[in-house]
Design a protein that fits this description.
It is built from one helix and seven strands, in the order βββαββββ. By secondary structure, the chain is mainly beta.
Length: 93
């Protein structure tokens, strides 16, 4: 599976900073969807969606409206609350 960013209005895929392509093979493949969304936040990209392309490109899943998130350093720290989720606890903001 490939994880790509796509401009909603043009259908172009992100290739590199200030570079978009219509060729899926040239598009940047992100490690995971969280990395793609965090990249959008860090670069202030708007009007983009995450596209999950599966082997052979017969299938894809589009996650529309990637809302810009605060950069990871600007997010509140998560803290562990013991006893709320079995033995492992629960991480909450």
């Amino acid at each position: 599976m490939r994880i790509l960013l796509q401009q909603k209005d043009t259908g172009l895929y992100f290739r590199d900073v200030d570079s978009w392509t219509g060729d899926v093979a040239e598009a940047m493949d992100f490690v995971d969807s969280t990395a793609a969304i965090e990249f959008c936040a860090a670069k202030h990209l708007a009007a983009v969606q995450v596209v999950l392309k599966f082997e052979g490109e017969k299938y894809e899943i589009v996650l529309p409206d990637v809302a810009p998130l605060p950069a990871p350093s600007a997010r509140p720290e998560r803290r562990h609350v013991a006893g709320l989720s079995g033995a492992s606890g629960l991480n909450v903001p």
